Amino acid sequence: MEERSVIIVGGGPAGLMASIYAARAGLSPLLIERGALGGKVRFTERLENFPGFSQGVEGQKLITEMESQARRFGVQFVSADIVMVQTADGCLEVLGNGLGIRAETLIVATGTGPRPLGVPGEDRLRGKGVSYCALSDASLFCHREVAVVGGGDSAVKEALFLSRYADRVYIIHRRDALRAAQVLQREAMNNPKITFVWDSVVTEVLGKDWVEGVKVRNLKTAAEDFLEVSGLVVFIGNQPNSGLVGQLVELDPHGFIVTNEEMRTSHPHIWAAGDVRRKRLRDAVTAVADGALAATVAHGFVRRR
Ligand code: NAP
To answer: How far from 86 is each of 1, 247, 277, CA to CA, in Å?
Structure first.
């Protein structure tokens, strides 16, 4: 079985940054990603708060640059779906489709996936008007009416993006105040194409072969309403992709990996970085910081061994 000092699973900003630090430390890291590199940043039209870009930077461009940077330092990339990680003889075995590698250390940077609403019709109409990524699906809603669920940064940012395509965007939020950053709130409130549906939740998605509308319940009055829309875009937060090491490391009650300040998990050979770990602020800036720290501390561990 091939042996490595460090394997990084997940090619978003946390994983890419970890790979750059590990490569510069001489660890010859292998970065394993099952899909396209970039994680959620790949689908972020523009990051306005990433340092060094006074006019913002396109998510896709940032990831392309990070990948080039990683390749320049000799990071190796493999496309594979890791199905199991197990402890074996004081090391780890990382197993995937046609892949088996022994590793001294593993950095888990697998991020999060969208949390579904869990209402009738949502699963059946997924990809048929129900979406979890406005950037990919916005063109489907050209000159249509569409509903966005959520009140955080993602929901508001994506609603603003959708408003360039759709005729009307409803933001359905379960409270009467948004969680999103003030700057996004202001922009959304001033956007004539955006209508807020406060104190409300979606209870069902309706449509035969495509979304034709959603049932909405007002939580304060219990009134039920039908909103005729051709799309439902759900941004109610994310759930961690931590299943891979769920049996090996401590998770918090929501499934996020618990780490200390050095990104160490409860398993001596496993580190976690980025959105998959329990933390206060999940974004690209904190992800790259996590990745750098995880690789630095993992390097110290390998050197001592
Ligand atoms: P989030 O901040 O957790 O917001 C989730 C939203 O969904 C909240 O408004 C929440 O309502 C609502 N919600 C949760 N469960 C719900 C349910 N079952 N039914 C209806 N509504 C529900 O998630 P996010 O917006 O995806 O952001 C995740 C992280 O990424 C945050 O730290 C955010 O700041 C960051 N982010 C940053 C940017 C940026 O441009 N800097 C962009 C996107 C995301 P309540 O408010 O009532 O809890």
So the answer is: 14, 9, 19
